[in-house]
Amino acid sequence: MPLITELTLPELAIEDPTFGEDPFSKFSAARTQHPWLARCAYGYVVTAYAAIRDLLLMDDKMRGPYDKVFDLMNARGSRWARFQEESLLAIWGEPHKRIRDVLAPMFTPRAANLRRGLMREVITGLLDEWVPKGAFDFEEFASYFPINVMCRMIGASPDVIPGMRSSLETLGLSLNLIPNFLPKLEQAMQFMETYLERLVCDRRAGERPGAEPDLLDALIQARDSGGLGAQQMTSFLIFLFVAGYDTSKNVLTMIMDQLIGRPDLYERCAADKQYCQKVVEESLRYRNPGTSSRLVNEQFVYRDVVFPKDTMLFLPNSVSGRDPQAVDDPDTFDPDRPQQNRHLAFGRGMHMCLGQYIARAQIEEGFHLIAQRMRNPRRAGKSGVRPFPGVWGLKGLPIEFTPAPGKLAASYPSIA
Ligand code: HEM
C-alpha cells in the first residue's frame, strides 16, 4: 500500500491569498486528477465530501494542528499559543469529553430556541440604527450581530463592543497562516482576557437581584463545582466569541451575496421564516467558512493509502457540499432540495460545532428580519475575499437598498 507521500497528486495552493476567489473550480479540477486528495504547501488537502466526513470522524487517530501551526507562526510560548492550546478544539479524548459534557447542556437546541427573542431584539436594534442609511458595507453591519448576541448572553456591556470587534477581526485571521501576524494576535488576546477576567470577577462580586441566570452564571457554576478550571473558563469565554464571530458574520454575508441575485428567494425569506430556515441550511451546504485541520497522531490506512504520523491534513467543510459524488446538481442553489442538513458546515466527530443551534437560530432570526427591512438590495461595489484556510469569506459587501420601517416587521407572519 502506498504512503501518501508516494502518490502523484494535484497541487492546490490554498495558502495563496487569491485562492478563495473561486475555490470550487480548483477543487473540481483537482478531483479529475485524484478523486479525493491533493497536495498543498503545508500538507494534504482532502477534496471529496465522503473522505472529509470519514476523516473528521477518525478522532482517535488525529490531534489538533497546533504544534505545526505554532512553528509556522513562530508563536511558541505566546499568549495566543496558550489560548489555542487550552481551547476546546485542541483537547482530545477523555479530557475533551469531560469538558464537553459539562458545556453541552448550555448549548442544546432548546437553549438556543429560548434565546430567539433576545436575537430578534438585538437584530431589530441594529436594523433601527443602520437601515435609515440606505447603503453600507453589509459585512460590517453583519459583524455587530453575533458580538451583540454573545454580549447579551453573558451580560457584557455594549461599551466593550468596538474593542472586542477589532480584537475578533484580528483573531479571526489567526489560523490563516499569515506570517508576522503574532504581535497583533497578542494585543487582541490581551484585550479579550483583561475584559473577560474582569467581567467574571464583577459577576462573582455583584448581586443581580431578580435577574434570570445567564450563560455566564452557568459557566461560573461549572467552574465552582470543579467541571472547569479558572483559566479554562476564561479561555472558553474568549473561544465562544472567536468561534461564533467570523463564522456567523461570514455566513450572513454569503447569504446576502447569494440572494442579491435571487430577489424571488429574498422576498420569501422576508415573508416566511420557515422558508428562511431552508435558505440558511442550503447556504451552509453551498459554501461555508470552515476548513478543519488535523495532524495524524497515529499512523493509519484509509482507502488503501497510508497516512504516517504527523501528516498535516486540511479538511475543507467549506467546499465539501459541492462534490457531485455526494450531492445532485451541487452548483445549483436550491433551498427545496431534500436532506439539506447532510452538509459538513459544522464539522463531524467529537469537535462538531457546540454552538451550531445558536448559530442557526441567530442567522435564521437575523436574516428573516434583515430581508423585511432592507428591501430590494443591490450590489454597490466589489467584494474582496478572505484567505481560504482558517475562516474563509467575503471581505466587504457594499450594498444599497430601499429602507423599510421597523413596524413592517409586525405585518409579516411570525413563527416562534
Ligand atoms: C455559522 C456559524 C458557525 C459555523 C459555520 C461553525 C463551524 C464550526 C466547525 C466546522 C467546528 C469544528 C471545527 C473542527 O472540527 O476543526 C466548530 C467548532 C466549534 N464551534 Fe462553531 N461554527 C459556527 C458558529 C458557532 C457559534 C455561534 C458558537 C458559539 C456560540 C460556536 C462554538 C463552537 C465551539 C465551542 C466549537 C468547538 C467544539 C469542540 O471542540 O468540541 N460556533 N464550529
CATH third-tier fold name: Cytochrome p450
Label the overall shape: globular
The tally of domains stands at 1
Backbone structural class: alpha+beta
CATH level 1 name: Mainly Alpha
| Uncertain runs | 408-416
Number of strands: 12
Oligomer state equals single chain
Share of β-strand residues: 5-15%
Q: What do you see in this structure?
A:
It contains 16 helices and 12 strands. It is α+β, with helices and mostly antiparallel strands. The strands form 4 sheets. It has a 5-stranded mixed β-sheet, with helices on one face. A 3-stranded antiparallel β-sheet has the order 4-12-9. The longest helix is centred in the middle third of the chain and has 31 residues, at about 230-260. The chain is globular. The N and C termini lie far apart (about 55 Å). Mean pLDDT is about 90; it is low at about 410-415. Protoporphyrin IX containing FE binds near residues 89, 100, 247, 346 and 347.
What topology does this entry show?
Elements: H1 23-33, E1 37-40, E2 43-46, H2 49-56, E3 62-63, H3 66-72, H4 79-86, H5 93-103, H6 109-114, H7 116-130, E4 135-137, H8 138-154, H9 161-171, H10 182-205, H11 215-224, H12 230-260, H13 263-271, H14 273-286, E5 292-296, E6 300-302, E7 305-307, E8 312-315, H15 317-320, H16 356-373, E9 374-379, E10 384-385, E11 394-395, E12 398-403
Parallel strand pairs: 2-8
Antiparallel strand pairs: 1-2, 3-5, 4-12, 5-8, 6-7, 9-12, 10-11
Helix pairs in contact: 7-8, 7-16, 8-12, 9-10, 10-12, 12-14, 12-16, 13-14, 13-16, 14-16
The structure holds protoporphyrin IX containing FE.
